[in-house]
Amino acid sequence: MDRVRSWFNHVTASERYSRFRLQPVEDGESDIEVKLSDDAAEAERDAEGFPSFRPPPLYRDRRSIVYLVLGTLLIFFTGWLIGYVSHRGSHPRTGNCSAVDATAAATAAATATAAATAAATAAASGPEALPTFPPAAPEPELTWNDITRLLKQKLTGEAFDGSLSDFDLPSRLAGSQEDVRLANGILEEFRKLEMQPWTDNHYVQLQMPDREHPNRVAFAADAFEPAGYLAYSARGKVEGKLVYGNYGRQADLEVLQQNNVELNDSVLLLRAGTISFAEQVDNAARKRAAAVLIYPDVDDYKFDESTPLYGQVHLGSGDPYTPGFPSFNHTQFPPTQSSGLPKIPAQTITAAEAATLLQNIGGAEPDASSGFAGGLKSVIYRFGGVKNVTVEVNNVLVNTEIHNVFGVIKGFIDPDRYVVLGAQRDAWGRGYAKATVGSAVLVELAKAFRKMVEEDGFRPRRSLVFASWGAGEYGSVGATEWLEGYLSSIDRSVVSYVSLDGLVMGLGGFVASASPLLYGLLEATMKEIPSPFSSGSVYDMVGQTEYLRPMAMDDPSYPFLAFAGIPSISFHFITPNSEAYTYYGTNLDTKDHLDYKTNHRTSEMAAMAAQFAGNVALRLIHDHLLRLDVRHYGGELTVGVAKLYQRVRQLSQSGRLKGVDASWLSRARGEFMRAAADLDDARENTDLEDSEACRILNDRTMRIERTLLSPYVTPTETPFRHVLLGRGPHTLASIAANDDMDQVHTQLALATWTLQGCANSMVGNIWDVAVL
Fold this sequence. Notes:
By secondary structure, the chain is of the alpha/beta class.
């Protein structure tokens, strides 16, 4: 070979010479890198094993041409001779073997001729012409059915048997040694999968009970020290009249006021359920109650009456002592706290302890139609307001290091656009349904997607990020701190967030909460995933029941949607026509209880939930155009604007609100609808093979959720800035309920321009805005 190369080097002449090498790139394809060499670097590059071509002296040109012609004739003659000998030496055989021999001879001759032709072409074209090779046969592209089939094959109940067992621990409190071991285990798993894992650490304030000074409740001759507690309660010792307030909803408290029950400085005893602990305490504080006690009534919670209850009462998410900014160790912000922290003490008690209080509460009985009656035995439910109760809360703040763990599978076309799948890792007790299932689904999905890329030729268009969150039980602390820390770099890159928390709570039913942009994708996925116990799909299983629910503040997806403006989705398989999975926040969230709710099909249901989440993510990383449908937002917006429009007209006609035209808001809604129609038209008429056009349209679509965040409120005071789905005085619903006319005037103007700004962002080019 050295002699052949030397001869070829003498034949080829040039003033400058090209060298090339094949390099693997991130998307797995070969990339030809062409570089012009110079004499100074020649020795170094030869040492690397690259071919080196040097110019022959000019007086050899004629001799080189003669050698080239002779070589060409020699190659041609050799090829002909081989073909002739092969043909002469063949013997007649049955079938088509003679034809094969003849074909082989012809092929050999054709090969020799092609080689001669290539050599002649190279000589005629000059020394800089590179040899041409027939293109390699392209790999067949995977269809959507191929991709979903591959994912389903890798997500089996058998795989989840082992994974669920690995993640099932007796304790997993945020920041504990068990939590750290789990985080390290997930990190190592991502490292084995070569997912370029990394961690995001924060130092947050978590509230814990004080072991030396336990919380206490005293009522007449009875006193007890509850085992459960509510994180982020106000500290202190208060005394007040004991009042029973059902679930503590606004409507329940209005019933008390209608029955002349004094709420000021009272201690409200409330049933858990219907709304979050934080909302119950906030409602009580607004009525000037002194403290709140919350218990699980047996009508709502079918477990032992001595079971303690745990939760948190921060009306927000993240570390409440670093609102709006991340709790990194190096940050030095002035002491502050979230406006969502309660100002009154709050404590959970058991059902048995609540029965002791209710048996001696006194006061009038509520009307049967009020729904105040619970299920505690030997108890007559009364309003109370007669006898005093003392509540003492001594919880302490503990500075705790928490860890978020990430892994990524990079996209091949738009790697800087990604879908995040996340699950919380911690829980108050075992947290089997709350955290074990979600963590197992997270890791099994990572394994499945990685194998599809490495072994099956799957090439996702966009990236997939897998996230294991810390301190989720304290109000999505880990996830929110990540959003606060990197919002400037992720809000324009994250396509969507898919929550993996609480995926499996039962068997036979399905509920979901999502951004309106994801309604269409949610329904399409329900029609693709088979029902767990029938021949139809999940969509068929649901039937006529309403599966969509408004996204609550304590939903793990809520900070992504209402704080960061990222389209998000949560879903849960449940048991229909039955009590909900009520073991969250207790030590009873175990494998046995979840197996009972799923008829011992937990592993199978976990695999199905993983397929559902995987299919949602697949659509978002696979399709040329993102499956984000703005048309569904039109309906949500119309409902919100209609209520506010009617309210503004009434206030204007009554003379209370002056100088305000209700049509301002209607015009902004009209601009939004026209921009949405224009965007839909552009999507329908876009060439899907034009990557740049698709990217531009996708970016326009991704801006919708983000531009519905009000730019006129501060995240430190009002973190959930979404004008439709957020919480605060800037939302359409809050403006409609406001009685302060100056605030209505101001907030209406700001909300109107927020909607107009969203419409403008959908148009795309600034010079097209005026066309609307």
